[in-house]
Amino acid sequence: MAGAGQKPNVSPSAGPDGDDLAYAAMIGRAKALIPQLRERASRTEELRRLPPETERDLHDSGLFRIVQPKRVGGSEFDYVALVDCADALGQADASVAWNFANLASHHWMLGMFDQRAQDLVWNQDANALIASSFLFPAGPRQESRWRIRAKRQLAILVRGWMPANGICWPALFVRR
User: Fold this and answer.
1) Does 3 reside within a domain?
2) pLDDT by residue (tens digit) across 70-110?
3) Does the residue 4 lie in any domain?
4) Residue 101 sits in which domain range?
5) Per residue in 138-151, pLDDT tens?
6) What is the helix, strand, coil percentage profile of the chain, to 5?
7) Counted domains in the chain
8) Which SS3 state, helix, strand or coil, does residue 106 take?
9) Residue 106 belongs to domain with CATH number
10) How far is CA 40 from the centre of its chain?
11) Do residues 103 and 130 lie in contact, with contact meaning Cβ atoms separated by under 8 Å?
12) In 10 A of CB 15, how many CB atoms?
């Protein structure tokens, strides 16, 4: 993974009410990537994923960690800042903006998990890219051994974390 194990090059982050200078700097970092992202847009489409250099740029700029808790080196901006940065990136390449928003938002989600779950990921690599999946119960007709096994596997994936009387069964997948 590009940027793995490296601390992003970011200035002091904003607090919950938002520091205008830190916010402007983060938006500025997103806008500074626009020329490179425009140049890579056709390659991104051809690869059908983020090119390694784009992933590296998003790590190095600190954008992937925009909503990650400060205690692990993130900026801990509010979700609106993530959307604003995605908007800036989208001016160059909508695919990059979608991937950025999806991956960065998972630092926010993991920040709501029990600290033990957070530590399983962030103690190994605070720059880890995280994605998730949800299985929604489909009713009695869909009950099968496969579904039971899938739930058990999901429980193992998240080390036993499941919602009570789960309406959905979340799982986080961490790219290493």
Assistant:
1) no
2) 999 999 999 999 999 999 999 999 999 999 999 999 999 99
3) no
4) 20-115
5) 554 444 443 433 44
6) 55, 10, 40
7) 2
8) helix
9) 1.10.540.10
10) 21
11) yes
12) 11
